Amino acid sequence: MPKDVDSAACHKRLPSWFRQEIPQDTGFIKNRLKEFENSGLNTVCLSARCPNLSGCFKENSVTFMIMGSSCSRDCGFCAVGKGRLNPLELSEAYNLALTINRLNLSYVVITSVTRDDLPFGGASQYARAVYLIRKINPGKKIELLIPDFRNQPEAISLVAKSCPDIIAHNLETVESLYQEVRPLADYRQSLEVLRKVKNLGFAGWVKSGIMLGFGESREEVVKAIKDLKESGCDILTLGQYLAPSGRHIPVKEFINPEQFESYRREALNLGFKAVYSGPLVRSSYKAEEVYRKVDNSV
Questions:
Q1: DSSP 8-state secondary structure symbol assigned to residue 149
Q2: How far apart are CA 234 and CA 231, in angstroms?
Q3: Are 225 and 263 in contact (CB under 8 A)?
């Protein structure tokens, strides 16, 4: 288990490039959170304690989290709960589609907890959500950030056939750190998930993300970037890992903006269609902007 660290002390060590504006309209943010609560919906923005929450909400951007609020895995970096796994709410997808309509979101990002207890990892809930969003909100763009579904071909095919605009699956870290960071996942399996999506003839874009700051070397990061490209990944995000609490894996290193830029150039030289790389970048950071950039380049 990771050693406990003093989270207050950790915050004191944050470099200057993490400074963000203090939100002026806190009432708007509270109202937005109340909207999700009333709809019975979860957001990874809140569950994962994302540092960009206020900025994304102000831009009318949100990442929904389906299949409950408890995960069947216990990754050392993640703040999402690991409690009781409840049955799926069949009304969840409908409520999600209605909420998207009420909030007038033009671009929707949907992720989930991992549910190894469900048939095909709950892939049908993703497909149901895409179908109902498209039915109630014609013309909306949809990005799915999926778990590995234990690399089950049927699950991956079900999601791909629902025809979202982007399918993302995060590699999260370099191969040597998987046992520490993602003990119930597998580096090669995650690459294979991306490869399967691509090989199914998926017409949208394939996306993945890596967190930095666990103690990985530059050579390992470059290798992971190359592995993602070879697996058919089109879009890449690289961001700084921040420990959600003292119970999580501590940050080993803060990567400076110049190093993030170096990785961005490296990835673009390998042929990625878009790369967002920086300390505050997260999987769905400026997701709509990334999608428009890639889509307009074709």
A1: G
A2: 9
A3: yes
CB of 231 closer than 8 Å to CB of 192: yes
Tokens of 225: 């970037």
Distance CA(293)–CA(298), nearest Å, equals 9
Return contacts of 30-36, CB within 8 angstroms, 24+ apart. Answer: 32/57, 32/62, 35/99, 35/102, 35/103, 36/62, 36/99
CA distances from 19 to 24, 50, 264 (A): 15, 14, 21
Give the pair of three-digit tokens for residue 273: 């269609």
Q: How far apart, in whole angstroms, are the C-alpha atoms of residue 141 and residue 123? A: 19
- 293 sits in which H/E element: helix 287-297
What mean pLDDT, rounded, does the chain reach?
86
For residue 171 the two structure tokens come to 């590699």
Sheet containing strand 274-277, strands side by side: 42-43, 63-66, 107-112, 141-145, 166-168, 205-212, 235-240, 274-277
Q: Which residues contact 121 (CB under 8 A, 6 or more apart)?
A: 114, 115, 147, 148, 149, 150, 152, 155
Amino acid at 233: C
Q: Are 264 and 238 in contact (CB under 8 A)?
A: yes
Rounded distance between C-alpha atoms, residue 210 and residue 149, angstroms:
19
Which tens digit of pLDDT belongs to each residue from 122-156? 999 999 999 999 999 999 999 999 999 999 999 99
Query: What helix, strand, coil percent values describe the chain, rounded to 5?
Result: 45, 15, 40
d(CA 63, CA 53): 10
**Cα angle 202-207-212, degrees, rounded to a multiple of 5:** 160
Q: What is the pLDDT of residues 81-106, one digit of tens each?
A: 777 888 998 899 999 999 899 888 89
